[in-house]
Design a protein that fits this description.
The protein is an alpha+beta fold. It contains 27 helices and 17 strands. The strands form four sheets. A six-stranded mixed sheet has the order 12-14-13-15-16-17, with helices on both faces. The chain has a five-stranded antiparallel sheet with strand order 1-2-3-4-5. α16 runs antiparallel to α17 and α20 crosses α25. The protein binds zinc ion. Zinc ion (ZN) binds next to loops.
């Protein structure tokens, strides 16, 4: 942790959880808590709850939970320190940093970004003015990437030499090595990583340079593209080329265009489609999609979607459901990429994006294309090709629409086709249940814990560990009893099930009614358990005593002195549960 603990605490205290959450979703007051539609899973009725006093949230639908810092991390995809910094900015708090540990990590990130920036400038100057870059400039101009574009995208040139960058950029070797711009070769000499390549600097969504994509000139050695490998500031699966420039246009259009390469992104922008991005040397990942959905709800794939393979379909449908995005396909003319089209036929490029179709429509049309459907045999073959494609879609209503469409095109009875649709093969996709409900606590135990969380002074003297049998409820009780608040209790605990239960308790409702009945019912439950174990041991006098107490505790009329007497007995003999489960303390 780079930020002083004390400052993190100040940020937590200064943050109004309800106000913070309201920046992202609507909250409605229900009793003591606030509820709204969960931002972390798709839902129609609100199960996302906020406890404003404790600054905690919990979703009854997907199990998402945490405090203000967790919320900002999750919703804005920031790391811990980034989230604290965001909240500190909001609250007008100036943070102080330790110089140890991850604190170094933060300032280290900055040194590495600075090293990248120096390299971006150096390579860019080289492309603009160095004689050895003449061929590269000519190649770029030939593809329509003139000086203005080269400057805008800060494109560079890595000369055909061993160590020009290392010797001239003015950054230490260790830092260059850390960002994968320099390496030690086999003879232990310092060497540049990129050589004889056009370099496209890759920026993160904030605009910090984090990597390079290097393209070889036609006829040059090695693979066509060579990209930075992963470094402390660069994770392929999380960075999209062009997002730093495109995010405004993506928000404006509620749509992102995903291309395959750097020149495609630039080509799109050249024809007025400034909302294009590209993964860098990897296919589109779930992290990428999550990142894009922060800015827009439609994703248009502008690459050869057939080549993405059948497996891609299942992933795209899953993401559609999970992130409520529409994945569409731009039908590019065969064999043409957006970079070429921007140069040769800008209208066709714009049209293909405008006329994008849903992913399933695209697959459907592809499967049907070129099929001879004039003969009965041809129709059967066409149905066999198209139906498996339809079957991949997880939504039955969508599937049926396409089945009817297919029936129409083949002049067949839809029921015939429905019978042949083998949906068994499709992958059911649902919102992932992030955390299984962990606790087996009884209703009475839950009520008591809830009261302890929200109305501590009304119940704490009438509760005891021996009243709880469920192990998770026991550890939750211990934490709550020992802490000043639910939040404090959560911080004391490592066990994930207990943490989960505590978060849930923090947003659950309690009424204002007297608590005596709830306590009495829990005490009776515990007495019942004790009676069972006493009966097994044959302690007759103790069994009589228990029976006497059970008779005298008859809610709704509760005599608290009897309840407290029972509590004393339980403290003396109670072990939580008859089989010894939960007898884990001390
Ligand atoms: Zn949720």
């Amino acid at each position: 942790m780079g930020i002083l603990d004390e400052d993190i605490q100040r940020v937590r205290e200064a943050t109004d959880m309800v106000a913070l959450v309201t920046e992202h979703l609507q909250l409605k007051r229900v009793g003591r808590r606030w509820t709204g539609l969960c931002p972390f899973h798709t839902e129609k009725s609100p199960s996302f709850s906020v406890n404003g006093e404790e600054g905690l949230y919990y979703c009854f639908g997907c199990g998402a939970k945490g405090d203000a810092i967790t919320f900002v991390r999750e919703i804005e995809h920031l790391d811990f320190a980034g989230a604290v910094e965001r909240l500190a900015g909001r609250a007008g708090i100036t943070l102080r940093y330790t110089t140890q540990g991850e604190g170094e990590g933060r300032s280290r990130k900055k040194t590495l970004v600075d090293a990248m920036e120096a390299a971006v400038v150096w390579y860019h100057e080289r492309l603009l003015s160095s004689p050895d870059a003449a061929e590269a400039r000519k190649y770029l101009r030939g593809r329509g990437l003139d000086g203005e574009i080269v400057r805008q995208y800060r494109i560079g040139w890595a000369p055909d030499d061993w160590d020009l960058l290392v010797r001239n950029v003015g950054i230490g070797f260790d830092r260059l090595e850390a960002v994968n711009l320099a390496m030690l070769n086999k003879r232990n000499r310092r060497q540049d990583v990129f050589r004889n390549r056009i370099l496209f600097p890759i920026f993160d969504s904030q605009g910090d340079p984090v990597a390079f994509g290097g393209r070889v000139l036609p006829g040059g050695e090695g693979p066509k593209y060579r990209n930075s490998s992963e470094t402390p500031i660069y994770a392929k699966s999380k960075v999209l080329y062009g997002l730093n420039w495109a995010k405004g246009a993506i928000v404006e259009n509620d749509e992102a265009i995903v291309c395959e390469g750097y020149t495609d992104v630039i080509g799109m922008a050249r024809v007025g489609l400034g909302r294009a991005v590209a993964p860098c040397g990897t296919s589109l990942t779930e992290e990428h999609v999550r990142l894009l959905t922060r800015f827009g709800k439609r994703i248009v794939l502008a690459f050869d979607a057939d080549a993405a393979g059948d497996n891609a379909a299942a992933r795209f449908y899953e993401w559609e459901g999970k992130y409520e995005v529409d994945v569409r396909v731009a039908a590019l003319p065969p064999g043409q990429d957006p970079g070429d089209l921007a140069q040769n036929d800008p209208d066709a490029l714009r049209r293909s994006v405008e006329e994008s179709v849903p992913f399933l429509r695209f697959r459907f049309d592809r499967a049907l294309a070129g099929q001879d459907v004039s003969s009965p045999e041809g129709k059967a073959r066409a149905a066999d090709r198209v139906l498996p494609v339809i079957a991949e879609h997880p939504d039955e209503i969508v599937r049926d629409q396409y089945v009817m469409d297919l029936a129409d095109r083949l002049h067949l009875d839809p029921d015939r086709l429905r019978g042949r649709l083998k949906v068994g093969a499709r992958r059911e996709v649902e919102v992932v249940e992030r955390v299984a409900e962990p606790s087996q606590a009884s209703m009475r135990e839950m009520t008591a814990l809830r009261l302890l969380a929200h109305r501590r002074t009304d119940v704490e003297t009438h509760l005891d560990l021996s009243l709880f049998a469920d192990p998770v409820a026991r550890s939750a009780y211990r934490a709550l009893a020992g802490a000043g608040s639910v939040h404090e209790a959560i911080e004391m605990i490592d066990d994930p099930s207990t943490v989960h239960l505590l978060h849930r308790l923090s947003v659950e409702e309690v009424g204002d009614e007297p608590t005596a009945v709830d306590v009495a019912l829990l005490v009776k439950e515990a007495l019942g358990r004790l009676r069972q174990s006493v009966a097994r041991e044959g302690d007759i006098s103790l069994a009589h005593e228990i029976n006497g107490l059970l008779d005298r505790i008859q809610p709704p009329d509760v005599d608290m002195t009897v309840v407290d007497k029972a509590l004393e007995l339980l403290r003396a003999h109670g072990r939580g549960s008859p089989d010894g489960v939960g007898a884990d303390d001390d």
